[in-house]
Amino acid sequence: MAAGTLPPFDPADPLGLDDLLDGTDRALRGTVRAWAGERVLPHVAGWHERGEMPDVRGLARELGALGALGMTLTGHGCAGASAVAYGLVCLELEAVDSAVRSLVSVQGSLAMYAIDRFGSPEQRARWLPPMAAGETIGCFALTEPEHGSDPAGMRTRAERRGGDWVLTGRKMWITNGSLAGVAVVWARTDDGVRGFLVPAGTEGFAARDIRHKGSLRASVTSELLLDGVRLPADAELPGARGLRAPLGCLGHARYGIVWGALGAARTCFETALDYARTREQFGRPIGGFQLTQAKLADMAVELHKGLLLAWHLGRRMDAGRLRPEQVSFGKLNNVREALEICRTARTVLGANGISFEYPVMRHMANLESVLTYEGTSEMHQLILGKALTGLDAFA
């Protein structure tokens, strides 16, 4: 570039954040964006409206072929990719629908991550290769009907019976539950909370899907029932002791949400920007009115501030320096701001904002779930409040 000249302003990248990515990251982003645009985008509005995701197992295998499942893990067929690369994948998947990102997040950042971090060599060798390939789907069962934000109150029990474990209880709001070939189930024992691998088809284990959802309608969400489920001793995750184990998995998944929520926000912002340029009222495009431009400017500022935050947290994760409080910082800010961007985009579209001919209402509804799961905004505020003051306000 000649001295004294500047690159043109890019409405899609006003801060020039692409300069922070290397060629490999940009190529991966392009590959996933193209896949999602071809395989999911043309159909997802109908899936959402009907409350289904047809051929989810086929999609899982395709995501496995892309290296998107358990992609930050190494070995056993996993890609060993960077945290930033994983974040970009979450961004592109949620740009088409939160349900697709949730499928990948639960598979890789919760179920596979738990097995990789806390499992035995035999458990990793058995489960991780088919899960990385998308041939086996996993789920992560922590939340219960009466205990969401307070997992310490879980009632699911695991008791010793000879050399076996017997599990009894219920889990609720479990993504991929009825699809899973293996469930990572957390239960209370006489020695504290432990994790167990429960294969599908085990006697006493059942999953039933939750219907009539107003959000994440294209995602499979289930209730898990454990009625005297007998497991051999080697079904226990040997490295998982206490609530720190499942909470550590949630921290890894929350990081993906920091990026993913901005995918939904980006789609809504781009939809609003295009609409403002073409929709005419009072004889000219509504994008020429001051109030509309103020909305678009505010949306762009929050979207790209959030992307800069996500990139920063990703670099810290890659350096092994990302603290749980910093993940809470990212989830609190980015999901909250993403939801506000979607709501503002809906006002730009006016009455058309509620139509499924446009993606805005679908993304806005999905983010209502993202706002709540893996830690509500209030819980992340308290995590940050405790870190800032040194005082525990949870009790």
UniProtKB/TrEMBL annotation:
The keyword Flavoprotein applies. It comes from the Bacteria. Residues 241-388 form the Acyl-CoA dehydrogenase/oxidase C-terminal domain. Its cofactor is FAD. Keywords: FAD, Flavoprotein, Oxidoreductase, Transit peptide. Pfam families: Acyl-CoA_dh_1 (PF00441), Acyl-CoA_dh_M (PF02770), Acyl-CoA_dh_N (PF02771). Belongs to the acyl-CoA dehydrogenase family. This is Acyl-CoA dehydrogenase. It comes from Streptomyces marincola. The lineage of its organism: Bacteria, Bacillati, Actinomycetota, Actinomycetes, Kitasatosporales.
